[in-house]
Amino acid sequence: MTPEPAVTTDRHEEPAELLADLVRFETVNPPGDERECIEWIDDLLSAYGIETETYARDPDRPNLLARIPGGDAAPLMLYGHVDVVPTTNQEWTHDPFSGTRADGYIWGRGTLDMKGGVAMYLAAACRLAAADTTPAGDVLVLIVSDEEAGGDDGLGWLVEEHPDLFEDVEYALGEFGGFEFDVAGAETYPIQTNEKQVCWLEATFRGNSGHASFPTPDTAMGKMARYVEAVDGNRLPVNITPSAEQMIESIAEELDGDRAEQFRGLLDPERTDEILDEMGEEARMFDAILHNTANVTKVHGGDKQNVVPEAVTVSLDCRLVPGEKPEDVIEELTELTGMEPEYEIIRFDSGPPAADLSYFDELAEILESETGAVAIPLLMAGATDGRHLAAVDVQSYGFTPMQLGDLPFLDLVHSGDERIPAETVSWGADRVYEAITAYDGTGE
Ligand SMILES: [Zn+2]
Q: Which positions fall inside the Peptidase M20 dimerisation domain (predicted)?
């Protein structure tokens, strides 16, 4: 690595440079190796006189909690992760860990997910400390390891081992949202208010086995194939949750005539799938939030060419809409495939059942007054660390404000040439600063 970046008390003035320095720490998960990055953040916050504490299950993967003392109101938490996904087999114009500034962008792994957001939170917190103003309640900044691999060393562990740290916290800002997003021609700023739940299953099929020189009916392999084909080619039933309804209604309000009618039609379960088919590519996100989904991602079975295996197991990555449980999707799979393999639940991280939007309007107002566009509550198809906060009754709102111009956020996250306009890192840090100074402890 290049020499340690500077720790001085003017770093909040250039959030984009702060981001470039964060990118230079190669915190690729696995293995993560977040320690140096977290220690550097610790030094930075400490230079501003901010109190910090670290908590670690694995000493190489610490988590840092900083506290800027405020008045008696309930604290507000800002949280983000510094680990990033690998860059293997990707094409990059600039070294993904150089933090290169070129053509108006900061380039590199994590600039969007989510060192950009972390830079905003750090800049806003340092600015608050430097300004010497007292917020209504404490401002907590939590920087964690291990989000990209599930949080077993990060937030998942922290809420289990140290739930007391979250005791008075009702609201937190984190991933995912606050950036401009064009839906059916309407300019929106989604703010994540809920997310789907990861449910990993294994399904094992058993059948006749033996020497492969004889014809063998009813094999595990054949059953597995019929099952995979059924799962692959069909949707699970429509499942409309309050979170999806809030999101789609808010979008429909911004649209005219036929388009508005089309979006409202998505909320009529009799018509949902037909409208999704008609919408084509644009429908992918809505398809995901209006159903439980299941993808077969791995197959294990057979180890010898001339032996018909007795058992074959497939791995399923299922994503459940808020409030659903593993048994619900297993029931849907039984219905869909007409088959009953042996299921094993490998992982299920329960999220919040419904989005409470009590802090949404205040955040929406910050973005709307600045941009003239509309903020919408986002039910996120993918999983974030927000689910872990649900376990300690903290509501997480996706707020890392960005104006990306022509950059396709979803195509660049986890991909080659991930980059962020340098100016928008400052813009986002300003919006975060507004959020923490406006917060009065009630979210209203
Ligand atoms: Zn992320």
A: 195-336
| Helix, strand, coil percentages for the chain (3-state, nearest 5) | 35, 25, 40
Does the bond joining 114 to the residue before it have cis omega, within 30 degrees of 0?
Answer: yes
Interval 56-63 mean pLDDT: 98
List, in order, residues 6 or more apart from 227 with CB less than 8 Å away: 203, 205, 314, 337, 339, 341
CA of 275 to the centre of ligand 1 (A): 31
**Model confidence over 283-328: pLDDT tens digits?**
999 999 999 999 999 999 999 999 999 999 999 999 999 999 999 9
Query: Would you identify the CATH topology of the domain 11-176+384-438?
Result: Aminopeptidase (3.40.630)
pLDDT, tens only, 91-127:
999 999 999 999 999 999 999 999 999 999 999 999 9
- Distance from residue 437's CA to the centre of ligand 1 (Å): 25
Active site residues: 83, 147
Note the pLDDT of residue 174. 97
Centre of ligand 1 from the C-alpha of residue 422, in Å: 19
Domain ranges of the chain: 11-176+384-438, 197-348
Residue 114 alpha carbon to ligand 1 centre in Å: 5
Distance 101 CA to ligand 1 centre (A): 22
> Which CATH architecture is the domain 197-348 placed in?
2-Layer Sandwich (3.30)
